Amino acid sequence: MLKARKLLVLVHRYLGTALCLLFFMWFLTGIGMIYSRGMPRLTAQARLARLPVLDMERIQFRPRIPLLAEEGNGRNPNSWIVPSEMPA
Length: 88
What we know:
By secondary structure, the chain is mainly α. The protein has a domain at 1-34. It has helices at residues 2-35, 44-49, 64-71.
């Protein structure tokens, strides 16, 4: 049992080191691709061409209802919630 535990610790150590280096290199190459303009790009026209047509009949959102619901709690419905105002 002691031998298996030592082997497990050894495998964990070296496998962790190897995977750490692999993911670190993956991270660095991703950053390099972003700043060297190596990422694929789409024009706005190409991006919009792939979107489905918006069916206006299926939209059921009425913007005044959520605003009325928020006005009852005394807070500005258009304000940001900062962490200090969040309930604990």
